[in-house]
Design brief:
α4 runs antiparallel to α5. With 155 residues, the protein is an all-alpha fold.
């Protein structure tokens, strides 16, 4: 029977204790990455529908537009927590997040906050019947999405 030396046992213990949190984080992060992708896809779908309704069609149906905007706000507030931990493509090939998100976290957080603020303002404008103002902000928000994606998202 082979016995581990005290230093060998210590090394094994350090390895196992170091490996377990990484493994737990990897499992949790994989779910987070999938949820993040699904959330962004749904935001993209809803935002395009809202933009088409308010900007392209110049709809006066504020209640219909508010259905989209309220769901956008709800989904938007799910996002910040989903970027707490890096998700390198080496571990999560499905990830669309570039490492710049965590290398330039202050900038990314600023842009995310701006996006969430815009979603709230759009919803407020729609609630107040200011369809034209909401449409202008929808267009500006779409430009911000492109700028953020160009820097922080893989295509």
């Amino acid at each position: 029977m082979h016995h581990l030396s005290r230093s060998g046992l210590s090394l094994l213990l350090v390895f196992l204790l170091g490996w377990l949190p990484i493994q737990a984080q990897a499992e949790m992060s994989a779910r987070d990455v999938d949820l993040r992708i699904d959330t962004f896809d749904e935001i993209d779908r809803l935002f395009k529908a809202l933009r088409f309704k308010v900007v392209n069609q110049r709809s006066t149906d504020r209640q219909g537009a508010m259905v989209y905007s309220s769901e956008l706000v709800r989904l938007g507030y799910r996002l910040p927590d989903l970027f707490d931990h890096p998700s390198p493509r080496e571990m999560f090939p499905q990830s669309r997040a570039r490492p710049e998100i965590w290398n330039r976290k202050d900038r990314y957080d600023f842009l995310m906050d701006e996006f969430l603020d815009n979603l709230e303002k759009i919803h407020e404008d729609l609630s107040a019947g200011r369809m034209s103002q909401a449409g202008q902000l929808i267009d500006r928000t779409a430009q911000g999405c492109r700028r953020c994606h160009n820097t922080f998202r893989y295509r």
